[in-house]
């Protein structure tokens, strides 16, 4: 085999191995601990939903992929598999809530409908509801 073919194959092999390693690193990357992260914005569930309802483009540019600290009244607690949990916060609009997805929560029974809660999560957008992911409870007022 000619030398330039060996060099070309070596370069292609190196690039392929590098791409596989990078993909594995990204796949196994842990999520940031939102409980310890500094929030980019501190808002109420009502004001957050209203901003998205009034002007979705502006609110998306401001909040999406940012850490938000949101305070609101619990409307619905939905336990999921593997201790995951979805929590809906009231916004004053019956058609739209702030939905908070928790990756895992130790004791979901301490969250009751009608209680005020402050949580922190990463905003992922607006689809009739404002969506927050990787949430963590900051304060639970009874």
Note the topology.
Blueprint: H1 3-27, E1 41-44, H2 45-54, H3 56-63, E2 67-79, E3 85-93, E4 96-102, E5 116-127, E6 129-141
Parallel strand pairs: 1-2, 4-6
Antiparallel strand pairs: 2-3, 2-5, 3-4, 5-6
Helix pairs in contact: 2-3
How would you explain this protein's 3D organization?
It is built from 3 helices and 6 strands; from the N terminus they run H-E-H-H-E-E-E-E-E. The N and C termini lie far apart (76 Å). A 5-stranded mixed barrel has the order 2-3-4-6-5. Strand 5 (116-127) and strand 6 form a beta hairpin. With 142 residues, it is an alpha/beta fold. The mean pLDDT is 87. The protein has helices at residues 3-27, 45-54, 56-63, and strands at residues 41-44, 67-79, 85-93, 96-102, 116-127, 129-141. The chain has 2 domains: 1-30; 41-141, OB fold (Dihydrolipoamide Acetyltransferase, E2P) (Beta Barrel). The relative contact order is 0.17.
Low-confidence stretches at least 5 residues in length (pLDDT < 50)? Answer: none
Oligomer: single chain
User: Residue share in helices?
Assistant: 25-40%
Topology pattern, helix = H, strand = E: HEHHEEEEE
- Estimate the mean pLDDT confidence: 87
CATH topology heading of the largest domain: OB fold (Dihydrolipoamide Acetyltransferase, E2P)
The shape, in one word, is elongated
